[in-house]
User: What shape does this take?
Amino acid sequence: MLNKIVLMGRLTRDPELRHTAGGVPVTSFSLACERDFRVQGEERQTDFFDVVCWRHNAEFTAKWFKKGLLVAVSGRLQTRKWVDKEGHNRTNFEIVADETHFAERRQDGPNYEMPPHPSERGAPPPSARSFAPDSDMPPGGIPQAAALTSTFAELEDDDGDLPF
Assistant: This one.
């Protein structure tokens, strides 16, 4: 079965970092996503999604993301069923984020500290993924871009006709 969701929106509040009884970090926040269309004569509608991040992704998100920041999230949609204080059955839908990324340049976002821009530190922009503890990923979740440009070679022009 396939359960994959990708969203881009603005945080409606600062992420909240908590820890489970077993000490596993978990962060939650809400994401506001404008719809791509609008009814003529009306304002564009916005959907609000609850997002949950776990482990390294939770710590990264809690440290660097703030209310108002434009972010991209990918993960899965999950439902939780529970009973409220009055005994009514309730269902909650939330996004479990496997990856979270910045979706705007530092100077375009809210006025607060963000990680250094890639040009200032020689690395790709920060993002976070959930990796197994035995993974060889460095802290922060991003492998160094090991000379990606050196693998490309310029093609010679054969002055021939294109086959289409």
